[in-house]
Amino acid sequence: MTNRFQKSPRTPLVKKVPGRAERDQGEQGQVETVQVFDYRVDAANSSFSVTGSNGKRVVVGYHGQVFVESASRRVRRVTLIADNLPADFPTHSTSKGVDYDYVAINGLKYLMPITAELRLSQGRNEALMNTMEFRDYKRFAADAKTAGINSADHP
Fold this sequence. Notes:
Strand content: over 45%
Number of strands: 11
Oligomer: single chain
Number of domains: 1
């Protein structure tokens, strides 16, 4: 099944991948079913750029997958892989992925990013991986009052 969205020229082609994937939900041992969607954005419609070690920047197309929890229809993982980097560009490949899970903040559960990973290869034999972990989410709040000013008291 192919869905085409015409909301903007940057909207990717989205295709549902046949079948379903199962994802382990951590310590509780529960398995959840997710639907997997492929997407692709051509370079002409892309704003994704890669900056090489030489400081040059190139805008490229990309593709990836979106993993959607079947029961709640919430996104649980997004991946992005750069397409068609120029042959003479210092970076040969780059990809990133973000995983989402429910996090308790002030006693309420919110779907938040929990990990992200960036991978790239450059030069002859250099591969880099940057893994990020998001934790200790806090709710920040402030109270403010607006005090009225009587114009008769302040000429």
